[in-house]
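Memo to structure team: turn this sequence into structure tokens by end of day. - J.P.
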Amino acid sequence: MTVVVASPGRALGRVGRRMRDWVPALLVFVLGIVVWEGAIAVFDIEQFLLPRPTDIVQTLYDQRGTLWGAGWYTFREALGGFVIGSGAAILFAILVSRFASLGRALMPIAIAANAVPIIAFAPIFNAWFDPLAATSKMAVAAVLCFSP
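Reply from structure team:
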């Protein structure tokens, strides 16, 4: 019976390689934030045109309760639309693959529906459903998930 023990040097080597892969991206990110902050100070850019990154982070922290609630609500709408659209697309794909004549008949309609910009669907769904309810947003998300 042979027992193989991984050396700590190997594990640290993998971690070091992973860190080396991330360092350039991290440096570019930090440099971009520093240039952004500096450009606002040097060029005296008005806050309503381009807020400072530090102000953005502070506002995100100060308004975290409100943003968390709104984000959770949006996530639920997006997830609902994803489930509806993906489920309908899977059922449609099963029907089209099972009945070839149905697929040939519906394919032009599916192609035409996919060619319509999603922004055109939003007013229609707002007219069909309550614009302030989650259903209209879920319907738009479902169309986005169904079409591809």
